[in-house]
Amino acid sequence: MKHSGNRRTFLLIGLLAAIALVFAACAAPAAAPSTGAEQPAAGAAAGLPAEPGRGTDGTVTLVYWQEISILNPYLASGTKDFHAASLILEPLLEFNQDSELVPALAVEVPTLENGGVSEDLMSITYKLKDGIVWADGTPLTADDFVFTWEYCTAPLTGCTVQNFVAVANVEAVDPQTVKITFRAPAPYPYIPFVGYLSPVLQKAQFENCVGEAAQACSDQNTNPIGTGPYKVKEFRANDTVVYEINENYRHPDKPHFAEVVIKGAEDASSSARAVLETGEADYGWNLQVEPAVLLDMEAKGLGTLMASFGGNVERILINFTNPDPALGDKRSVWSPDDPNPHPFLTDIAVRKALSLAIDRNIIAEQLYGPAGKPTCNLLAGPPAVASTNNDACLTQDIAAANALLDEAGYVDSNGDGVRETPDGQPLKILYQTSTNSVRQKTQALIQQWWKEIGIETELKNVEAAVFFGGDPASPDTLNKFYTDVQMFTNGPDNPDPQQYLSNWLCQVEGEYVIQTPANNWGGSNVERWCSPEYDALYETLKSATGEERAQIAIQLNDMIVQNYVAIPLVFRASVSAHANSLIGPAIGGFESEEWNIEDWHRAR
Q: How far is the C-alpha of 235 from the C-alpha of 125, rounded, in Å?
């Protein structure tokens, strides 16, 4: 995007440039030349037309070791589902591989300069591209955007996406014009309907799926009608999704692949192996695999590793509620009248001791290599909003952790190696995460360190498709949080931190957003931490600009980290791999890796 030196435009757009810097991608050695015997069948160029065109390149196969569970991003909790939905559903704007905003369904990026952003920063107006139709041939209109906002903000829908927190109204000015009005001046207005977390839904398909009905709309949630390059041909939950071309897609010569298959794999290593060693697949996502193993695979010469740092952090989340199964329907349930406090994790001394006992350097160096850096922040990137106030956590201190617990009155009264609370309850923790070799090795290390401070830890791992699936009927989802602590990676999907930091709000416009049965385990506040001070400070972020905005974001991060609401471990790069025969993948830190899949094609 090009912008003038207009002062107001600088406040608005200069902010994006200032904080959209992304860390350099991890360096990977050049792939060894492949022999004819090594060339994967999927990459064979024989018989292809001289130039790519719509549907000319056959099938492209993507491997996700976290299998796809749902294709409605507003009800999803796993990144894998957001990615899978992005082939079908589109936003107004998206981020390219350089973290620059580019139009998707909108004609252009609205600014103060072009009149798309109001002078008082209270609204942003988008013009839709002409002639865009849904996959069923009906026209996309501004009413679909109004409906999507109403759908997600209906309390009982269970929407997991927080892109509409600051929105007061979405209006259809005319069929081709969408106006979004904010509750307060928005110096960074590019959150609602921006990026793969916030696409538009077709009103005609979802209008009977608002509120309590949302979860039961299985056909809509697994086969949404979209405006993107593909539509669902076959959906097998937690297994395989097959896509075919949306014949009404607006680019007549795209997409180049006639069919896309996203299939599951046993684990991240299997995903990597399918691309880099056997050639069974063209693309492998989220390769959370030990670096030495990945580099050995890449040396086979069939594929290439890609990496990009955005803001993803592997972290341990603390459950502030009591997950005891004996509580029945109250298990892990928070309410403003009864916060149902955890018997010992609500004590900051215990949470701080858990953090002090961890050696983040060992985890990062041994299990992530150049694709991970030890971190003490949940908001670890972009660099402009990364705090330096918490760096003491980079030094493990078992002695300090033990002293802290001693002082707080947690002692091992019976000599079994496990401390007890003052009322005699053992400090025993159930620690869950998704099934993945790196995560299980991380768990084992932390289990040993916590043992050294008198805390017994039982390890649990859940199949990734289930853990990240968000099924309100399943007891094993990260949303239910039926354990004491849990671990996974999350991070901002926008270079601006506002939307990401909303995930720790307790209330939005008087409505509680902590995940509970009352909102179908939707909402966003997984830890069930309620802080009026955090909510108040967040309100100031929404209207702040420039350096003040960055500093408030840092303060919010520090409030979460210094209260040990979650324990950051590793600042992770997004690591994926593609077959050498596949042209087009271009990953960045803040968008679906398939954001430009309509441009992917086979090497000629």
A: 36
Over range 217-226, report the average pLDDT. 97
Q: Determine the 3-state secondary structure of 483 from DSSP.
A: coil
In this structure, are residues 598 and 329 in contact, taking their beta carbons and an 8 Å threshold? no
Q: With the CA atoms of 124, 128, 129 and 130 taken in that order, what torsion angle do they form, in degrees rounded to the nearest 10?
A: -140
Residue type, 214: A
Q: How close are the terminal C-alpha atoms of the chain, in Å?
A: 31
Phi, psi angles (nearest 5°) of residue 136: -90, 5
What does the DSSP assignment read for 117-132? Answer: B-TTSSEEEEEBPTT-
At residue 46 the predicted structure's pLDDT band, cuts being 50, 70 and 90, is low
Burial class (CB in 10 A: 0-12, 13-18, 19+), 46: exposed
Residue 137 has pLDDT above 70, yes or no: yes
Residue 501's pLDDT band, with cuts at 50, 70 and 90, is: very high
Beta carbons of 419 and 410 less than 8 angstroms apart: yes
Q: Whose structure tokens read 């953090």?
A: 355
The tokens of 482 are what?
């039926």
268-276 and 437-451 helices, crossing angle to 10°: 150
**For residue 138, what are the contacts with CB-CB under 8 A and spacing of at least 6?**
202, 204
Please give the pLDDT value at position 493. Answer: 86
**Using one digit for the tens of pLDDT, what is the confidence trace for 164-176?**
989 999 999 999 9
Place of tokens 């018989």: 47
Residue 41 predicted with pLDDT over 50: no
Q: Which residues contact 592 (CB under 8 A, 6 or more apart)?
A: 82, 83, 86, 94, 196
